[in-house]
Amino acid sequence: MPPKLQNIRASKKSTQDFVPVREVRDGIIVLKDGGLRAVLLASSLNFALKSEDEQTAFIIQFQNFLNSLDFSTQIFVQSRMLDIRPYIASLETAYKNQLDDLMRIQIREYIEFVKSFTEAANIMTKNFFVIVPYAPTALSMTKNGPASLMPWNRKKRGSEETNRTFEEQVTQLEQRVAIVQQGLVRTGVRTVQLGTEETIELLYKMFNPGEERKPMSLEVSNK
After folding, report:
1. Which tens digit of pLDDT belongs to each residue from 136-163?
2. Residues whose CB is less than 8 angstroms from the CB of residue 59 and which lie 6 or more positions away in sequence, other chains included
3. φ/ψ of residue 219, rounded to 5
């Protein structure tokens, strides 16, 4: 095999090894080390527009929320350029289907205005996420004793035991998710847990920032 081809294959392998995700199962990210992660999409609020009393109340509630946690969490902000291509495409369709000449002129002018405005303003969209972790302890992984680590015993236990263990770990993770959601709702921040499709889409956009897919359809109501 030519050295250049070997280097390319080695590079691809190292890139895959860099990604710590093994799979996304039932909306839960399963890491290669066995850890689990749940992803919550959080609503936003404009802190600067709140009164001084409201700001103080928010800070106190958020402080209480952090102090109530006995596990770590990660707050992740995703900033992306606003993709207006689907909107422009819908306007182009309306332009083609419009029979009135005056309306066609107005639609064309509006399309050009939207394009120039978004290019000049450099509009960004932001999504806010909270990552809730759960790492299985060594005790839970070997709860059946040292014999459970033997290869023949692992095969004997089979996939049924693996699924049962996964469900138990997910239950522990869901308890943490509930704690985070209850704590944040007291600050006025609402959250919703991403499903499998939304989680895969989020990971895809993170590792492929130059490629576009459909925008995230999941929304968090502020009402």
Report:
1. 875 455 444 444 445 545 555 556 666 7
2. none
3. -125, 155
